[in-house]
Specification:
Blueprint (H helix, E strand, L loop, with lengths): L2 H4 L3 E4 L5 H11 L5 E4 L1 H17 L3 E8 L3 H14 L3 E5 L2 H11 L5 E5 L7 H6 L6 H15 L3 E3 L2 H11 L4 E4 L18 H6 L4 E4 L1 H4 L4 H13 L2
Helix pairs in contact: 4-5, 5-7, 7-8
Length: 232
Amino acid sequence: MTVEAMRDRLIVGLDVPTLKEAEAAVRELEGTVTFYKIGYQLAFAGGLDFARELASGGTKVFLDMKLLDIDNTVAKAVENIVKMGVSMLTLHAYPKAMKAAVAAAQGSDLCLLAVTVLTSMDQQDVIDAGYEYDPHTLVLRRSEQALQAGMGGIVCSADEASAVRKIVGPDMAVVTPGIRPAGSEHGDQKRVVTPAQAIRNGSSHLVVARPIVAAVDRRAAAEAILQEMSAA
């Protein structure tokens, strides 16, 4: 596929400490990147208003809030997030929370994403958290539950994307963080995959933060990743 076809499939994580830095990154990447993730770090530094601003201007926003609470609280949060105009929202893949979110988002264009197992976790981390499954099995179990709940997509490692795609079919989004270009540092990620391999594995969207936002030339870094994706 062409680089142009890949632009809406690359989500750049604005994992920076200040709104000023996020705005600078977006300016530098204008024309190259069309989709941004805003998570906890930026959300608590003015990022929610920035998300509204980006969305109102036609830029796609992935709001990475990983919601989890009682049903009513999740539903009310989703109702307000729908009004923000963002494109994607994450919540932890707990069946009751997912069902509440799906009901609250009904009739909107918001794509609800089920977070399965964080890409910073390996088998020992999952055991320490009290789960009886290994990460791969837990991802697949939660993907089945997300499909049953009517979610719009799955968040998982690209290592698991192929197996997840077989469960959820061709239409659901499979969003994969933990993407690292060949030769780059893994940081605190444990289950990482290159951009090209992620696309080959069935990922619909790739989330890339540090390899782009921490680069000396962010635009060049983003273009290089888009080239890798298009060569898959």
